[in-house]
Amino acid sequence: MTLINTNGLAFIGPGSEWFWTALSGLVLAVTFFAIYRQLRLQRSQAAIAQVTTIRAEWASKTERHTRLAALIDLEHQAPAEGMPPSASGVANWFDRLGYLVRKGHLNAEDASTIFADDLLFWWTICEPFVRQDRAHYGIELILSDFEFIAKETGRLWKADTGSAYVPHETIADQIDDYTVILQRHQDLERGIIPERKQAAPVPAQEVSADTSA
User: Fold this and answer.
1) Distances (CA, A) of 103 to 57, 89, 98
2) How far apart are alpha carbons 182 and 59 in whole angstroms?
3) Which of 29, 50, 77, 201 has its CA 20 to 30 A from that of 126?
4) What is the pTM of this model?
């Protein structure tokens, strides 16, 4: 059974134009595919580098110190008093993250995977202050990208867990956590070697007296 009839077809010389046109089209298709894969690889590498940079910035000593100061200021401050400047620094960090996601420079799922718990915790405590500042200044766009990324992350959180986000730590808990982390940073800078805790001595078992006759 003949699938392709090549009778009368020329591959070289006059009449072979169809063959070279088809071959050129195939070469172009392969070239475009290779370029597409290369661009996708470059975009993936750029995205990984961007996420790595953002994670490193978030975990830096400077940012942790900023968050600790913000938590201390927020612990006993009412939203009616407005957001303290220290907390604005943290909120603006998330606002910048939201801007990158909204503009398509960072994938929302990647941001959610890395920062979901922190982002939703901070939005939970900052939202009342944001509402107050918007009403006070009459500017609805204050920290709008922070709100955008918080809502998107909350949606993804609910899709993954089946329930809305609920903070598992209080502000006081976070203050304790950051204090311990920053103390470790300080010990590392001073060259202090962690001391091993001594195990409590195990009490010797009392030997019962033999009362048998």
Assistant:
1) 20, 21, 9
2) 11
3) 50
4) 0.71
